[in-house]
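[step 3/7] fold_predict: job queued, chain A
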Amino acid sequence: MTKRNDLLVEIGTEELPPGELVALAEALTEGLRAALADSQLLACDSSTQSFAAPRRIAARITRVAARQGAQTIVRKGPAVAAAFTQDGSPTGAAHGFARSLGVGVEALERLTTDRGEFLSYRERRPGRGLAVVLADILEGVLQRLPARRRMRWGAGATEFVRPVHWVVALHGTRALRIPVLGVVSGRRSRGHRFHAPRALVIAQASAYETLLESEGYVIAGFAERRERIGGQIAQLAATIAAEPLVDNGLIDLVTALVEWPHAVLGSFDAGFLEVPREVLIAAMQGHQKYFPLQRQGRLLPHFITIANIAPKDDEAIRKGNERVLAARFADARFFWDTDRKRPLETYAQGLSQVAFAQRLGSLADKAARLARLARVIAEKLGVDPGQAARAGALCKADLLTGMVGEFPELQGIMGGHYARHDGEPEAVAAAIAEHYRPRFAGDALPDGTLGLALALADKLDTLVGIFGIGQGPTGDKDPFALRRAAIGVLRLLEALGERHGQDLPVAPLLAATCAQYPSGLLAADTADTVHRFLAERLRNLLEGTLSQDIVAAALGGGVDRITDTIRRARALLAFAQGPTAPALVGAHKRIRNILRQNHEPLDDHEPWNGVEKADRRLAQEIAHCEAEVDDRSGHGDYEGALASLGELRPAVDAFFEEVLVMSEDATTRRGRLRLLARLAALCERVGDLSCLKISGDPHE
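[step 4/7] structure written:
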C-alpha cells in the first residue's frame, strides 16, 4: 500500500488583494482536493485546511498517497459484426483497432454492452507518482481561482493575481519539484518582509504554520490572525476603560493586510469631537483602517491601529498615525464649518446640473418627484405630508457639499446634520439622514415613520424609473443595484406593517410612483414589471427560511400587501405541520382538478338548493365557514382561518362519498361545481393549498 502523508502547497506572491484573499485560499484548497480525489490519491477520511496571509495562500490536505494505484483501462473498438467476416476472419476495422494499440488482433477481447458486442482491449497501467499528478493539475487549479483580475510580470507570459516569487510543495518531509507559474517548487518559503526576510526551510508539511509563526513572524491562518487582532483590540481598549467599535468588515480587511498584527493605542485632539461622530468614525474606519473607541456611547479622543510589525517601542508608530489622523480630521472640520455657511436648500438648487440617469432627468427632477411621492405616502401613513415633501425636496442636497464629496458614504447623514443646523423640524432632518436605509443586507431601517416614507419613495422612484426605460438587471449584471433596492422596499413595507400597522398595498404605490414621471416616458407595463420583480425578490427572501412549497402557496394569489403575505406564509407553515392538512390539501387538489376539467360556464346566480343531504350540508358549512374565514383573515389571523377550514373536513368527505359531482342532470352538475368553486375560493383566501406538499396527501 502506498504511503500517505500531508500535502502542503503554498503560493508566495506580492501582496494579494485583501478583499479576495480568503476566497482565493479556499478555492485553492477545494480545487486541489477535488483534483486529487479525481486522481484517486485521497483517502476517504482526508481533511483540508486553508491558509491566507497578505503574501501567500496555502492548502494542506491530509492522507494523500505518494502514488496512484495501478489502473486497468478498457478501450472499446468496433462492433464485432463489423470486425469479422462471416467466416470469422478479421476485417480491416479489427486490424486497424489492434494496430492503433500496438498489439495483434489475438490480444483483443469481446465486450458485451446494452448496445451490442464490441471488440475491446484491457490495458494495465502503472499508477503515476504524486509529483507527476500535481504537475498536471496545479496550474489548472490556479487558473480557476476566482480572481477578478490577473497580471503579468517580467518578460514572460505567466499570469496570476500577483507576481509569484516562490512555491512550496511538500508531501510529508519530501519536497516535490514542480514547475509552476514561472518558478520551481520546493521547501523554501519566506517569512515577514522585515522581521524575517531570509528564506525559511520547511522540514515537513505538518510543521508549516508553526514554523512560520516561530521563525517567520507570520500567522498563516486567517481565522487565528483575526482572533488575535480582536483580542489585542479588546485588551488595549480595556487599559483606558473604553469600548472598541469593531466593524466586522473592517476587521476582516485589516486581517487580510497584516501578517504579524500589533495593536497600538493613539489619541487625537478632543476639540475634533465637535465634528459629527459619523464623520470622525468614517475618517478612522474608512480612510485610516483604525478602530474608534467610546465610553457609554460617547466617542473618545482615542483610536487603535493595527501595525504589521512588532516594534521595540510603539511611540514612532503612534505619533505617525496621530499626525495622519490629525490632518484628516482638520480637513473634515474645514468641510463641516464651510458647508454650514450656506443653507442646505441652496445646495439643492445645484442639483439641476447633476444627472440622475439617462432620460430620467437630473437629481433636481428626482428630488421633485420624491417630494410629491413622499407626500402621497405620508398621507397614507397619517404623518405630516408637508414635512414629507420638505424632506424629499432636500434629501439629495448634501451630495453637493464638501463633506460628502470627501466622504461619500455620509450622504444623507450629513444632510440631516445640516438640516438641523438650518432649523428644519427634527422629523425632516431625521428623515433626510435615514432615507438611504437600508443600504445593504442587515442594515438598520429608518427609525421614524417619515424616514420610512421617504426611504420607500426613494427606492420606488429608482426602481420604476430604471425599469421604465428598459435598464433592468440582466443575468448577474445589475449596475443600478435594483435587486438591493427591491429588497429594501420589501423590508420597508414589512416594517410599516409590523411596527406601524400600515400594510400598504404595492399596486397603488407603484401607480403613484409612475404618475410622478412625465407621460409617455416610461414603458406602459412598468408598474406590472416592477410588481413582478418585487414578488420574485420576496420569493427569494422567504425561501431563505421556508420551503419552496410553503412560499409558493403564500404567493399563489399574488403579492400585494407584504406583511400580509409574510403572515400567510407563517400560518401555512404551521398548518402544514398540523393534523388537518393532509385531508384539506388533498380535497383542495381534487377540487382544482375537477374544476380544471370543466368547460361549461357556471352561472353564480342560477338557483340551486341541492339534491342530496350531502349537498345541503356542505353548502351550509361553507356559508358558515365563509363568515369565519373572512373575519379571521381580515384581522390577519390566518392560522385561525385555516383552523376554520379544517372543520369542513367531515362535510367535504361526506360530499365526495355520497354524491356524483358530474351528474347527468345539468342543473345538479352545475350546482355542485359552483359549490366546489366556492370551496376552492374559500381555501385560497389564505393561499394556494394545492402547492403544499404534505406527508399523507394521496395526491403526492
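[step 5/7] annotate
The two ends are 50 Å apart (CA to CA).
The longest helix spans residues 315-339.
exit 0
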